[in-house]
Design goal:
The complex is a heterodimer of chains A (79) and B (367). Chain A has 79 residues and is mainly α. Chain A has one domain. Chain A is 91% helix and 0% strand. Chain A starts with a helix and ends with a helix. Chain B has 367 residues and is mostly helical. Chain B has 12 helices and no strands. The longest helix of chain B has 41 residues. Chain B starts with a helix and ends in a 9-residue tail after the last helix. Classes of the chains: A mainly alpha (79), B mainly alpha (367). The interface between A and B is large, with 37 and 50 residues.
Chain lengths: 79, 367
């Protein structure tokens, strides 16, 4: 009875989606910034392999952010 | 004929409510971007208006909740919807006049519930929908935004901790263009849908639409336009008072607060939960502030929001019920709603004049 009134499933999905996207997107974006910062520092120190690795992590983080945003909007429009 | 007159009044009143919703909420949507220097005020406001407009088109789940899950559409008449809108607008005006933060969304639902109860008794209220889709999400969502923003900024500080401040600030400012845009989109979709839902409810009550109908395109387009125009108009007022309601935070905090707010509002919208977007955004801002320094949180504001939660629904319901009772004195025709509209316009003009003479309120009502 209480579960029916509370819409437990939908509420839990809302909580899960909010936590995953809210925390996940901010974390991935931070990785993007970390990658950019490390790339610039390591390039200055003439460490091209490490710099490329950092840049790759950063770019992947930003790509994941872009993917999450697009996926979110597509999911919104499909209901 | 008289029911059509009432319907026109209801649609105009609902769109006016939608406009004021956008007007009041501009500060919440753009303040973070402006405060951290991520966007110039004029750009932030123009961007927010456009995305408010676009957001109104991406979902109709919340509109369906407002139209079908809160009150029994079978017993609703356009006059009941009208009285509910007057209840919401009156409560917003009262709280605006006295500088109390309140939720336009809760006021709208409270007003409609109150007028429905006055007209058809408690059987007219769908308790399951009201509790499960409105009251519980209203409590959960701001707390969720607080926790999500706090966790997100905590993680971010760990990741970027040893980076040079310049690149970090610049990066998050760019990011805020996206997070601020998503927040405006989320605000547009959740808040505009409440107006769509109310207009749809009135159209169903009038027999213009079937009981299970979705909002027609003209309802979606006009609600989108009203909230976008409200946001744009409110924005120019905000530019003049920039600094008074802006919260100081760094770009990383701004990004996490906006991201958390957008995530919570969009996820809730997907499941048809009508939220107070103001409360959610404030929850996100407080969460990102608390993660850095607990004393950064304006606990007084949090207390005021809590009191507003307790008061808004019953107060708007009482006014909505009383308004319905008053309109019934003049029968079931259009005379009652017309008289109430004229009285409401006079009161609004008097309140604005008096407020202007005494100075601006501390806080405006939010959605």
């Amino acid at each position: 009875m209480i579960a029916t009134i509370v819409h437990t499933d939908e509420l839990l999905q809302t909580v899960a989606a909010s936590v995953i996207t809210g925390v996940g997107v901010t974390f991935l974006f931070s990785l993007g910034i970390w990658g950019a910062g490390q790339f610039s520092e390591l390039s200055r120190d003439k460490r091209p392999v490490a710099a490329t690795a950092a840049a790759t992590v950063g770019v992947l983080g930003l790509l994941c952010v872009a993917g999450a945003v697009v996926t979110g909007i597509v999911v919104m429009t499909q209901k | 004929m008289s029911s059509d007159v009432i319907l026109v009044i209801v649609v105009a009143t609902a769109l006016a409510f939608d406009f004021t919703n956008g007007f009041h909420d501009t500060a919440n949507v753009v303040a973070t971007s402006i405060s951290t220097g991520a966007a110039r005020p004029s750009v932030a406001i123009g961007f927010a208006s456009i995305l408010n407009f676009v957001g109104a088109f991406i979902s109709i789940s919340v509109a369906a909740t407002v139209a079908k899950d809160v009150v029994d559409a079978e017993v609703i008449t356009p006059t009941i919807v009208f009285a509910g809108l007057i209840g919401a607008i009156s409560w917003n005006l009262i709280t605006w006049y006295f500088g109390l933060p309140s939720s336009s969304s809760h006021a709208l639902i409270g007003g409609v519930v109150g007028s429905a109860v006055a007209a058809a008794g408690f059987d007219a209220v769908l308790a399951e929908g009201l509790v499960g889709k409105v009251l519980i999400p209203a409590v959960v969502a701001p707390i969720l935004a607080f926790l999500v923003a706090g966790t997100a900024i905590g993680l971010s500080y760990r990741v970027i901790g040893r980076q040079r401040p310049g690149i970090v600030s610049r990066g998050y400012r760019y990011g805020q263009i996206v997070s601020g845009g998503l927040l405006a989109l989320a605000h547009g979709t959740n808040d505009a849908q409440k107006t769509m839902g109310v207009i749809t409810l009135a159209l169903i009550a009038n027999g213009t639409l079937g009981a299970e109908a979705d909002p027609p395109f003209w309802v979606i387009a006009s609600s989108a336009t009203a909230i976008a125009l409200g946001t744009y108009s409110g924005g120019w007022r905000i530019i003049k008072t920039t600094g008074t309601r802006i919260i100081k935070m760094d770009p990383a905090q701004g990004f996490s607060a906006q991201g958390a707010g957008a995530a919570v509002i969009l996820a809730s919208t997907h499941f048809g939960f009508p939220l107070s977007t103001t409360h959610v955004i404030n929850g996100g801002v407080m969460g990102s502030g608390a993660a850095k320094r607990l004393s950064a949180v304006r606990w007084g504001v949090a207390g005021n929001i809590f009191v507003a939660w307790l008061l808004t629904l019953p107060a708007a319901a009482l006014i909505g019920g009383a308004t319905y009772g008053f309109t019934r004195i003049f029968g079931s025709g259009a005379l009652g709603p017309v008289l109430v509209t004229l009285m409401a316009l006079s009161l609004v003009a008097a309140a604005f004049t008096r407020r202007a003479q005494r100075g601006a309120p501390v806080e405006a009502a939010g959605a």
